[in-house]
Amino acid sequence: MGVIEKLSSSIGTRTQEANVKVARTCLADPRHLEEIAEALAGKDARLAGDCAEVMTKVAQEKPELVAPHAGTLLAMLDHLNGRVRWESAHALALVSSLARRLVRGALPRLGSIVRRDESVIVRDYVLDTIATYGGTGPKAAVEAFPLLCEGLDAFNSKHAARVLAGLEGVARAAPRLSAEIRTQAVRFEGHHRPGIRKAARSLLRSLGSATA
Q1: Per residue in 37-93, pLDDT tens?
Q2: Virtual CA dihedral for 7, 10, 15, 19, nearest 10 degrees?
Q3: 178-188 and 160-173 helices, crossing angle to 10°
Q4: Cα angle 102-66-48, degrees, rounded to a multiple of 5
Q5: What is the spatial distance between Cα 91 and Cα 93, in angstroms, rounded to a whole number?
Q6: How far apart are CA 45 and CA 28, in angstroms?
Q7: How far is Cα 162 from Cα 49, in angstroms, rounded to an integer?
Q8: Of 46, 41, 34, which Cα lies nearest the Cα of 7?
Q9: Residues 2-49: pLDDT tens digits?
């Protein structure tokens, strides 16, 4: 029996236990990830969702095993099924620092997803992908920064706390952006949402501009 036959949807369960077991199998023998990637790109949405979840579970422990499949994960961000999209986005975020060339080429598309995808979770993880990429070096930081600024205000600043946290890594990667990043943080340090205020003040502290 292959690993696909052991996934939740294959055995008729709704829990993630079966997928967790398959992820462990893939961690022990990464060759199984080829089978997972193939089914992820297949026509069965429930099976694809399981496969995306397996990719996420593996990437949480060994992102280097999933990074070769980043292109498949990226392709799944346009899937009609929400679970497939957000699990794929989660896995992609976890491996984005190891798939820099792919992410760089996909930045316009990722920005479009942030603007239009109906799923908050998908947008969260896509912004994580952009921020992680931005933290990999000065050039990447400059490329990612405009999209992250856009993400600060997207959907009534729904993702602002997450983006502000991500900007800490961008600032470390490109200190010359610190003044511009500080300007963005100041905009949110008095925000009415506590989580956003906290993230903004944390960012300001990391930039050396602690406030009372």
Answers
A1: 999 999 999 999 999 999 999 999 999 999 999 999 999 999 999 999 999 999 999
A2: 0
A3: 160
A4: 95
A5: 5
A6: 26
A7: 24
A8: 46
A9: 899 999 988 888 778 999 999 999 999 999 999 999 999 999 999 999
Reading the block at residue 12, the tokens are: 């008729």
Please provide the size of the chain in residues: 212
Tens-place pLDDT, residues 121-170: 999 999 999 999 999 999 999 999 999 999 999 999 999 999 999 999 99
Reading the block at residue 124, the tokens are 């969260």
Closest CA to 129 of 102, 160, 158, 156: 102
Pairwise CA distance, residues 169 & 83, whole Å: 28
User: What phi-psi label fits residue 208: left (phi over 0), alpha (psi between -120 and 50 degrees) or beta?
Assistant: left
